[in-house]
Please model this.
Amino acid sequence: MAVDDKTDSVTVRQRISRLSESITNFGHADQNNLAGLLLLLPNFVVFSLFLLGPVLFALFLSTQNWNVFTSSGEWAWTTLFGVRLPIQNYVEVLTPWPWENNWASLRSPSYNLWWFALRNTIAYVIVVVPAQIVGAFFLALALDMRIRGKKPLRAAYFMPVMLTSAASGVIWRWLLANNGVVNEFLRPFGLANAWANDPGTALGSLMLIGLWGGIGFNMIFYLAGLQSIPEELYEAARIDGATGWQRIKEVTWPNLRNTHFFVIVLSIIGTFQVFGIALVFARGGPYHATTTTVVLIYQTAFENSNYGEGAAMAFILFAIVFVFSYYQYQLNQQNEVSY
Amino acid sequence: MADTTLTDVRKRFESDGNDVVAVDDLSIEIKDGEFLVLVGPSGCGKSTTLRLIAGLETISDGEIKIGDTVVNDVKPKDRDIAMVFQNYALYPQRTVRGNMSFGLKMSTDLPDEEITERVEDAAEMLSITDLLDRRPKALSGGQQQRVALGRAIVRDPEIFLMDEPLSNLDAKLRTQMRTELQELHQQLGAATVYVTHDQTEAMTMGDRIAVLNDGQLQQIGTPLECYYEPANQFVAGFIGSPSMNFIEGTPADGELQLDLIRYPLTDEQQSAIESAAASSVTVGIRPEDIELTDEDGPRTMEMNVSVVEPMGSMNLLHLEQDGIEITASVTGEHIVDEGDRVRVRFPADRIHAFDQQTGTAVFNRERSDERPPGILSREGVSSHGR
Model:
């Protein structure tokens, strides 16, 4: 370990000296540095203008009582634990806390719409993410086999990914309408239902649409991951006497660990941000059954013109997604070093 | 324990509508307890042959028998074989113990205690007992290969199949593992079929070598038979490093008309050429059989040294004269420089001749039965049948 410590400290020292050199030389950028900076410039300008700038402005907005008509605002001060902070919008969004009213906020949208929308979103994430992952995995397995017409099938499963969420929402609104195609099939069995207008089924329908739209996207990653598993592992498993299912369990699934991580993170981020299909399919209704957090952010900011609270909600959502992704990353790191 | 027999085994693959024959009418008998090395260049069909024995590929024609059972349609797990792969093929999520016991759990009804005992015995044999609870990722290449060997050993198979198991190891470890594998083979006593493209491995490890080219068996014999008595020009060129030199020649009046000299033939060589009715032959001589000499003579020629490769114990001389290029291996103690002009001799008892049309050996070099000084007892006769 002594050697390691020494190596580490040497590396750190080298890094520090390199950093100080580059700081000293920064003002005297030679031709190469200049060319590098010029190459970075277009991206930096676009990134700053369309991402970093708006994000920082949204952060500023979340601390303001913003007036849309005058395009100006005042600091939204509040006192928390004796400290005066401009976080009034955050407090407005989050209070009353769900436990203060015996969790009624999670059961009904009448108490605090943020918590109700978050409940909808989490339910959506809990159902859609695992279903998308497991579905995409088995779909990829099937389409990786030597079957006829697998290329058109792959294209067919990927096609929903190319549709905009608004188009998907419209298609499914038609399909699931009272006298839509789905009901025509279900009517003979007495199962026809107003899928989008029934608060009991609207969120479930939304989950179905999300699953349909996302499964092809994840399938592509799994298909790519499957190509990287060495054939020898399957052969060793065959010699060991593993059945088809055991080969999936012992070889395929564990060897796709990095793909799982990537797909889970992307799916969690994507599903937490579900918006287009929810808005187009049922406009967040009926009775807020499909009001997800991003739909609520949209409605708060752009329909009710409450930019401050809308921005605050957006940052709370960012924090939630960040925590999930970071936790997942940590988990993956632990798996990587598996002594 | 029993023999494994391949009879007229053929494997065809379909590629873009064309049939590609990977293994062509191959017949080999692998004796019980034998270490047989399948050797040949890339694409010669050696790995396919191994996979056919393992049951990982189905055979197109012919018959494979392990013991008295024809295994053409038997699943790999039921063939009583164990295989070691080049890339180890260990299950990444399982510990060493898990990897070694998995096959036994899947394909046998052995009680857990016996599985544990077998795993621990094999681990001890391979000195990996302290690694049993680690995962493959935490092991070096050499350790992973030992685990892969352990996984094969615990199955106590009729036949071990090894597909270039040492190729991913560094040179030093490869040499060490080569010896260990041989010791292990002697200890276990089961037949082993070992695939390699490395002819040093083939020469040093095999009881017998089967040399393959284009899916066809070129020669099967002990390593020294293949070295001293190659059946054809391909085997002569493939076995031995550096490779044998070849010079084209035409027999006439008890001599061979080579490009640079008229080479006198001995009576035996002359009659071999006559009985083979070869109108043109290719003369072969190994680099280590070429001698540097001061004396001019009928079997000598003068050549220029174009490159010298000093290897320590010997110097490899790349010689050139009138477009003919050959390699000679001479003692490393003497200094030879690039640009030197040298006289070389091809001793009469060291040359081979191959029919230019068919490539088959017309005659091979003489092989001495003489034993070196210093041998005090004759009891330690090698099992290689040399």
Summary: The interface with chain A takes residues 51, 54-56, 75-77, 81-83, 85-87, 89-94, 102-103, 106-107, 134-135, 137-138, 151 of chain B (CB under 8 Å). Chain B has a mean pLDDT of 90. The longest helix of chain B spans residues 171-188. Chain B has two domains: 4-233, 244-363.
